[in-house]
Structure formats: C-alpha cells, structure tokens
Design goal:
By secondary structure, the chain is an alpha/beta fold. It contains eleven helices and nine strands.
Length: 287
C-alpha cells in the first residue's frame, strides 16, 4: 500500500533524483516538477498528498507557488514543506507566513526529511483534512466550507456519486476501485477547471461520494455537463476487453444539485439533507 503521493518541486536534477529514488524506496508515489508552473499544472491533474518545494526555481519562486496553492480552494489543504538553501531567519518566517507546514534548509538530512514528511501527513490524516485515496479535502474541511455558505447569497452544490461502483469493486477488486475514485476526482477537477472558477471547492465526502461547492449557481449546469461528458467518455477504460465487448453496463454518475435559491437554509445539516434528497430524486428519475 502506498504511503501517499509526494510531489518534489526542485530544479536541481541530482537532488530531485535522489529524493525520488529515496522516497520511492519508502513506499511513496513520487512526482517531480522542475518548474513552478509545471507543479501547479500537475496539481490540477492529480492532487498530491504532500509537496516538498524549493524556493529558487527557474520560472517563479517557491513563495509564489506556495501562495498560489494556498490561495486556491482545491489545493489550500495540501501540506507544503520548503526545502531550500535560503537559510536566513526572515526567509523562514516568510515561508511559514505563507502557510507552509515546515521549512528545512540545505544541506539536509534525509532521515530528518523523511520523518517531517511522515509527520505532516499524519497530522493531515488525524485532522481528517484529506481523503487518503484521492487527496481531496474531506471531513472538517467540507464542513467548514458548508458553514461559510450561511454568509453567502450566491452558491451552488453538486453532490455526485458513482452508480455501479460497488458492483465494479466486487468484480475487479479494491485496487481497481481506488483507481476509479482517483479517475473521478481527476475528471471532476478538469470539469471545474473548464466550467467553474478557482474559488470553487471540490471535496471527497467518503466512498464514492463527491461534492462541489460552486461560487456561483450559474456555473453549476456547465460543471455538471462537463463532469458527465468526461466521466462517460473515459470510464470504459477501467473495464477489461471482454466486458466491453459484451456490452456490460458501465458505471455512471448520480448527481444532485441545489443552489442558494432552494433555501433559506439555517444550518449545514439542512443543506446536506437537501443535497442528498436532490441526488435521490435524480436517481429515481434516471438522470
């Protein structure tokens, strides 16, 4: 079982290769980016569970990368550890002010870095900040976003699940099931990128249940359509050739939608109950 997805943002290939080989030997899935923009794009494609980030990069400094990640609701929860030659006290304070979880200066001890990565991941899991499979926000982070709706006048919620997921997992196993969940998280992120805004929140509630909190109700129909189109176009790749040839019924999305116009709502329980009811109604209507 993987220890988690680790992203290394480092333009020194000797250091990045050493870190990649070492953390892979520790059971991590490791992605490497040599430029800040590459790191941001890779985060949009698949959220890492933790990021080890250099400050001195060829295109933008690590402070800007951290600021961008912390300023986007979809990446604001990902733990960030700065690993840099900038060893002035003011540099460290600036990094921590931007929201970094830790700050390590070069030269560094691999064992120390390993435990700092492990501890940051443990804190995130203990606080129920992320789903272990998809890396998306969960638990308290979702509840916090729902509470903020009480103070907003324009919003929309998309509550999505995967019909047929249980049967698929029974047939193909839990590893294949986790791949489907990561696939769903990826295409949902792509749909929000295409039709929503960086202020839109994506969360993984549990199992095959996902939530999008859109900053504008007007964006919701386009996000839903983009999510359906991408999911339906690619979900077949998770089945074997024989099943596809026999025309097996593929997994599909069950999506409920509510907006600020469906209120007023007075607590988050009313919102979640309304979203669940909207999804049940959508399933009953076959949409």
């Amino acid at each position: 079982m993987s220890e988690g997805r680790l992203m290394i943002v480092e333009d020194d290939t000797d250091i990045s290769n050493m870190l990649r080989i070492y953390f892979q030997s520790q059971g991590y899935e490791v992605a490497v980016a040599q430029r800040g923009e590459d790191a941001l794009e890779m985060c949009r494609q698949q959220l890492p569970h933790i990021i080890v980030l250099d400050i001195m990069l060829p295109d933008m400094d690590g402070y800007d990368v951290c600021r961008n990640l912390r300023g986007n609701l979809r990446t604001s929860h990902v733990p960030i550890i700065f690993l840099t030659q900038k060893d002035e006290r003011s540099d460290k304070i600036h990094g921590l002010e931007l929201g970094a979880d830790d700050y390590i200066t070069k030269p560094f001890d691999l064992e120390e870095l390993k435990f700092r990565v492990k501890n940051a991941l443990s804190r995130a899991k203990y606080e129920s900040l992320t789903n272990a499979t998809t890396g998306l926000p969960s638990g308290g982070l979702i509840e916090e976003q729902l509470r903020q709706l009480m103070r907003r006048e324009d919003w929309g919620i998309i509550y999505a699940g995967i019909q047929g997921f249980g049967d698929f997992k029974d047939e193909y196993g839990f590893v294949a099931g986790e791949e489907v969940l990561r696939f769903a998280a990826m295409v949902l992120g792509q749909a929000v990128d295409e039709a929503g805004t960086p202020s839109d929140f994506i969360g993984h509630i549990s199992g095959d249940d996902f939530i999008v909190i859109a900053s504008s109700k007007d964006d919701v129909p386009q996000i839903v359509q983009a999510f359906r189109d991408r999911f339906d176009a690619e979900v077949g790749t998770h089945y074997d050739w024989k099943a596809r040839q026999e025309g097996v019924e593929l997994m599909s999305l069950a999506i409920g939608v509510i907006t600020s116009e469906d209120g007023p709502f007075y607590d988050i329980r009313e919102i979640t109950e309304a979203a669940s009811g909207a999804r049940r109604e959508a399933v009953n209507r076959g949409i």
